[in-house]
Structure formats: C-alpha cells, structure tokens
Amino acid sequence: MKLYDYKMAPNARRVRMFAAEKGIELEMASVDLGQREQLEDGYKAVNPRLAVPALELDDGTVITESIAICRYLDEIQPDPALFGTGAKGKATVEMWHRRMELEGLQPVADAVRNSVNFFAGRAIAGPVDFEQIPALAERGKQRIDLFYAMLDAHLADNAFIAGEAFSIADIAAVVACDFAKVAKKRIGDETPNLKRWYDAVSARPSAAA
Amino acid sequence: MKLYDYKMAPNARRVRMFAAEKGIELEMASVDLGQREQLEDGYKAVNPRLAVPALELDDGTVITESIAICRYLDEIQPDPALFGTGAKGKATVEMWHRRMELEGLQPVADAVRNSVNFFAGRAIAGPVDFEQIPALAERGKQRIDLFYAMLDAHLADNAFIAGEAFSIADIAAVVACDFAKVAKKRIGDETPNLKRWYDAVSARPSAAA
C-alpha cells in the first residue's frame, strides 16, 4: 500500500493526518507539485486525474479522492472512529464534515487557486487547464470570513467540530484554516473560540504528519 | 422522522432517490423554494442554513447536508448497500461519488446559479447573498462537457458509475445530468454510453421519487 503524496498539498495532508490519528504507517511516494511532477507521464499512469493524494493498493488498484482513501483506511483500522459512531453520530460527523468542505475548503480553494500566481492558468486541479477568475477569488475570501465567524459561534459550545469527539471534520477544518493562510486569511483575536480549537487541534501530533 | 423537501431541488432529489432505493417511506414537508419559503422564519428555526433537504429525527435533532441524511438512512436500512461493500468496494463508491460531485454537480451548480435569472443575487444557497459571476457560469458549462465526455468513456466498460452495482454515485450523476438541462446542457448522441446508462437509471422507479 503506497500513498502518492506532496507535503504542501492540503488534500494530501487530510489523508496523512487521518492515517496518523489511526496509527497507520503508509509507504510514501512524493510527487513534487511545485515542479509540476503530477503532469508528467510517470504519474499520469498512476492517476490520470493528475492530482494527489492517490493510494495504490497491493493488488494495483488505485484509489483517488482524499476521503475515499480515508474510508479505506477506516475500514482496515476502525479505531479510533473518526467518521462517528451510531446512526446519529455518523450522520452528525458527515454533516459537519460536509460543511467544513463546502463552507471552508471550497472557498479557500476558490480564493487561492484563482489569485495566487503559481496557479495562473491552473485554477482547477486535473488534466484540463482553466484560467483564474478574480471575482471568484474575492468571493472565496468573503466566504472565508463567514466560515471563521460561523465556526467561532459553533465552537463556543463544542470542544470539537462535530461535538465532543475529534473527527474527520476537525481534520478538514484545520486543513482549511492553514490553507487559508495562502490567501492571507488568518485566525485572529476576534474569533477566540476558533483560536482555542485551532491551537488544540494544531498541537496534536497528527497535525504535523 | 420528517424530510424537509422541495420537488425541484437537486439535493433533495438525491435523498428522495436514495430513500426510494432503500424502500424507506419518509414523511415529507415541502418547502417552496420557488416562493423563497426557505428564507422565512418558520424554516429558519428548522435549518438556519436555509437550504433543503433537512431531516428532522423524532428526538428533534435536525440533520442537514444530503449525504449526511443518506448516511443516516443507510444505517437504519443497510440493504441494498448503496455506499458499497467491503473496504475496497466502499472506497471505490466513495471515489466515484466524489468525482460525480466535484466534476458533475459542482460545475452544474456553478453554471446554473451564476447564469439563471431566478438566482440573481443568490448565487450560493444559504443565509448570505452573493452576486452571480458570469465567468464562473461559463467555466461550469465547459466543465459539464468534460464531465459528459469522461462519463461516456468510463461507461463503455462499466454498467454503473462505480462498476457492476448501482450505488449512490449513480444517484449523484443522474441528478447532475438532469440539473444540467437548466444550463441547456443535454446528453446527446455523441455520448452513446452515457446515454445508455442515463436511460437505464432514469427508468428506475426511484428516479421519479
């Protein structure tokens, strides 16, 4: 089992952090996105979507999409239960995880990929090039502010994103917050509950994975 | 257990179709998005995110996000297994489902919400208004063409999106294809494999749910 990975890629970090929380050690193969290695023929043969992460199983099957990889890891190592437990618990984690993706990771990706020079002409990951849309970057930045404000209110009464237990929703959220720094959006003193949560999650050993 | 629903809403349709495939009958409460009923105080008390669908459990808990609702339904009625079976099977369904969302539903939503007059000033669902971005609608339309071409190639060798069995990935895909009609993007004769799959999935009783 081998994970195609890049240290700076937010989606790859989600998988690394998930695996670290599970205590799963993965063989790593680095694909240097900074050098556009994911666009070369070698990696194209592994993942024609030209994105990381990708998990290659021992039988040669390649699983792409970060959360699909996390689901696989969750099946082979159920503890700790990062997707929640019980019908209501699993639904609650899925709900908050989706919100972290739709209200956090997506706006941050919109902001970064449509404004940062490195992504000029590459506003969407994958095999087809798209030009940046500056108005979308602006909209992304506005939505990051809303995301931080929403989380600050929510975390006034919750230790973690989905309630009392650490879950995959916390992973998505902390990755979104760190990725947002690229768009110059940092958590400040005006959101103290968010700051408390961010410091706690960032101090977990998995956050450095 | 009550589902807040609107017949024309793509995300609500995903849940209705999922429930129908499971044989689960849900009590329905219609929220008329055509009349902006989701923005009124009554619904705001149910779901402050002001979107449908939302599932209210008998204990008063409200689950939002379509797939979180589907996960709940899957827990209370595991058969048929629409999220896949076994570690590799579940990961494969999650991978294809994610691709249907990221390469299908998202571009279609970009195209529709950023161009259709009804969504002027409401380019993103939820409590905050956003202006439409015409360039994003154009990008969405280009990506729908790529989505159809990708699916046509994939379905040359696969009966369903995630392989041999019908899954939640097929639900997301058929909802994306029907929603794309609003952006005047219809499946044509140039994608015969996609057409064959679309006709088969559309003929299932659940597609009319």
Outline the structure in words.
Two copies of one chain form a homodimer. Chain A is of the alpha+beta class. The first copy, chain A, has two domains: 2-76, Glutaredoxin; 86-208, Glutathione S-transferase Yfyf (Class Pi), Chain A, domain 2 (Up-down Bundle). Chain A is built from seven helices and four strands. In chain A, β3 (54-56) and β4 (62-64) form a beta hairpin. In chain A, α1 (10-22) runs antiparallel to α6 (168-180). The longest helix of chain A is centred in the middle third of the chain and has 28 residues, at 86-113. Chain A is globular and about 50 Å long. Chain A binds chain B through residues 57, 61, 63-65, 67-69, 71-72, 75-76, 86-88, 90-92, 94-95, 98-99, 102, 124, 128, 130, 133, 135-136, 139, 142-143, 146, and chain B through 57, 61, 63-65, 67-69, 71-72, 75-76, 86-88, 90-92, 94-95, 98-99, 102, 124, 128, 130, 133, 135-136, 139, 142-143, 146.
